[in-house]
Specification:
alpha+beta, Glutathione S-transferase Yfyf (Class Pi), Chain A, domain 2, four-stranded mixed β-sheet, 4 strands, globular, binds glutathione
Length: about 220
């Protein structure tokens, strides 16, 4: 199986974590987002969205990170994607939760909205109003994550077992490090991030993310949470 990826990508990192934890063999095909390789005809032919990740499994191709995670987990009989209908539905639910409101307000609003030139508004009033809304909504979502998904009892976001929702969610939440966002106000979120970061595969998988994305913005000034 071939994975077209970039190491800083928020949606590739969960796949790389799962693959590393479960020894899933992937032929890693680097797509240089920084040089615009993803918008060249050769790659658009692979993924017309011009985005990573893309998974090729023989003649079967997938282009959505969340679906790729589920496919790999299913193929691998992963415990991170339980077979029981209700447990699996819960994992799907929380992955959707991260991928919709949380991603929109936190990833796009608070992080990309302060770091990626094509997401930042040029009109100062529009930019500050949009950021203020993203900040308010991000606090709301982090409160839900802290109090309702994790609470004081759950080690992971779907209970006490690690699932795909943790791989996906922790990569979205730690994206905040690019914009120096701090999670001290949400102690259960902080505990969960630390649990995920203590896993043996974390450092190696996230090397490129910390070096090129977090490192690239180390001197930036950002609105906090
Ligand atoms: N809906 C896709 C989104 C993929 C996506 O946004 N990928 C980013 C990297 S994290 C990308 O390739 N960005 C380049 C671009 O959109 O030009 C998924 O969840 O897999």
């Amino acid at each position: 199986m071939k994975l077209y990826f970039h190491p800083v990508s928020t949606v590739c990192r969960p796949i790389m974590l799962l693959a590393a934890d479960e020894n899933i063999a992937l032929d890693m095909q680097f797509v240089d987002l920084f040089k615009g390789e993803h918008k060249q005809p050769a790659y658009l032919n692979v993924n017309p969205c011009g985005q990573v990740p893309t998974l090729d499994d023989g003649d079967f191709r997938m282009t959505e990170g969340s679906a790729i995670l589920k496919y790999l987990a299913e193929k691998n009989g992963s415990r991170a994607y339980p077979a029981d209908a209700r447990q699996r539905a819960r994992v799907n639910e929380i992955m959707d939760w991260f991928n919709t409101g949380f991603s929109r307000d936190f990833c796009y609003g608070m992080v990309y909205g302060q770091t990626l030139p094509h997401v930042i508004y040029t009109d100062a009033a529009v930019q500050s109003g949009t950021l203020a809304r993203a900040q308010e909504k991000s606090r709301h979502w982090l409160g839900i994550l802290d109090q309702h998904l994790l609470g004081t009892k759950n080690k992971f976001v779907c209970g006490n077992d690690l699932t795909l929702a943790d791989y996906l969610g922790v990569c979205y939440v730690t994206l905040g490090e690019v914009a120096h966002l701090k999670f001290d106000a949400w102690p259960n979120v902080t505990r969960w991030i630390n649990t995920m970061k203590a896993r043996p595969t974390w450092a190696k998988v996230n090397e490129g993310f910390y070096q090129h994305f977090v490192g690239g913005y180390k001197d930036g000034k950002f609105l906090g949470l």
